[in-house]
Structures are given as structure tokens and as C-alpha cells.
Write a structure and sequence with these properties.
mainly alpha, two-stranded antiparallel ribbon, 2 strands, 11% strand
Length: 107
């Protein structure tokens, strides 16, 4: 039998889901599951302003969903780890079933 999550785990998961409830942040996370991007590249891909993208990235980073590294003067962003990438990928697979009506895998 699986253990119940701790209160701290519930709070962390709630914070993560709260961050992912925003369409811009979810689009950012989708891009960041496939590689590293700087703010300018992300803003261009999303057709959004750099300040807006920066604000969203700061929130995602604060929640532990995004990791950064420096490359010269640029800061590169990416999804934090395999757990986060899997969460985002599975959310979009689920959405695909909802939108297209394709049968579920376990039905």
C-alpha cells in the first residue's frame, strides 16, 4: 500500500499545480521540457514580451519547476528534472485525449 503524502509534499504539489494553471507558464514549460532557452528565444517563440516571460520564469523558478545555468552573459532555462518533464508531457497527453476524444490507454 502506498504511503500518504506529507503535508509538505501536498503544499509543494499544490504550489506547482497553481503555477501550471496559467496558459503562458504552461506554454513555457512545454518548451522547456525539450531543451534550454534564454528569455529572448522564449519570448520570440511565445510571441510575448521579454518582461512578461521573465516574470513567469521567475515564478516557475521560485516554485522549483525551472532550473537555470549561465552561459557567458546569457541565462538558460530548462525544466528542472525528469519528474517535471514527465508531469508536463503527461498533462498534454491527457489534454490530447480530452480534445480529440481518442480512447484512453487504460479503458
Amino acid at each position: 500500500m502506498q504511503e500518504h503524502p506529507s503535508s509538505a509534499q501536498i503544499e509543494a504539489a499544490t504550489a506547482a499545480f497553481r503555477m501550471l494553471a496559467d496558459p503562458t507558464r504552461l506554454r513555457l514549460m512545454w518548451l522547456l521540457t525539450s531543451g534550454e532557452y534564454d528569455v529572448t528565444s522564449l519570448a520570440e517563440r511565445l510571441e510575448a514580451s521579454r518582461p512578461l516571460v521573465s516574470q513567469h520564469l521567475a515564478k516557475l523558478r521560485m516554485t522549483g519547476l525551472v532550473h537555470t545555468r549561465r552561459e557567458g552573459r546569457r541565462v538558460l532555462y530548462r525544466a528542472r528534472d525528469t519528474h517535471v518533464r514527465t508531469l508536463i508531457t503527461e498533462a498534454f497527453f491527457h489534454a490530447g485525449h480530452e480534445v480529440t476524444g481518442k480512447p484512453r490507454h487504460d479503458d
